[in-house]
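Thread: Newbie trying to understand structure tokens

Hi all, I'm a second-year student working on a class project, and my supervisor (Dr. K.) asked me to get a predicted structure for one chain before our next meeting. I've only ever worked with sequences, so writing a 3D structure as a token string is new to me. If someone could post the tokens and maybe explain what I'm looking at, I'd be very grateful. Here's the chain:
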Amino acid sequence: MEIESILKQVKEGAVSVEEAAQLLNMGNYEDIGYAKLDTSRKERTGFAEVVFCSGKADSHLMSIYERLYEKEGEVFGTRASKEQYELIGNRFPQAVYDPVSRILKIEKEGKKRTGSVAVCTAGTADIPVAEEAAQTAEFFGTRVERIFDVGVSGIHRLLSRVDVIRKANCVVAVAGMEGALASVIGGLVSRPVIAVPTSVGYGANLHGLSALLTMINSCANGIAVVNIDNGYGAGYLAAQMNRLAEGER
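---
Reply by user tm_fold:
Sure, no problem. This is what the structure looks like when written as tokens:
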């Protein structure tokens, strides 16, 4: 829809000011040649654009961080390397890098976090993916409870924390090997469960395929499954669910 047409409809009362603002923002992006930065994403979805750092040229990554920081005052990047952190850190001393989750972020101080999401892992080897999920949800304003190493090979560990898990608005279950953790949690809680298969496991794990198939075929209700090792996707979805539960938009 053309801008003049939108403004005319606002004048005639056919479109509200809020609707017009949304329509005008839908087409906004900044074309910098090698990338088109989605500068209106936060207005449309509630969350600003996130940077997938892996594979990006240094000059491209630097420029993207600079433009997004100028627009939002903060930047969240996933799958970053130590070398990329050193590059961004030289320009932005306030940048923080976590080598476990490989998240590279510049975050506003004093950010408010609400609600509750429980991020659980089957084992300690699943923590890198779980931390990606947890830190994503935290960056987008969610309070996170980490409950690690509660896999089904020692299910008493999970049962000892089930009261905490049940209080969360949603649960992220991160597991490799056979991926049974999500099914067990799904049968214990009344909240939605986001299952994250990881590539942790021996040969027949097939780099996470066995865990993925187990989670997709779960007989427990209320389970949604993201891609193998996709902690970011799980954390983003958990933040959305948490906002709904807390009555936020």
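A couple of things are worth pointing out once you decode it. The chain has a mean pLDDT of 90. The longest strand covers residues 114-121. Feel free to ask follow-ups in this thread.
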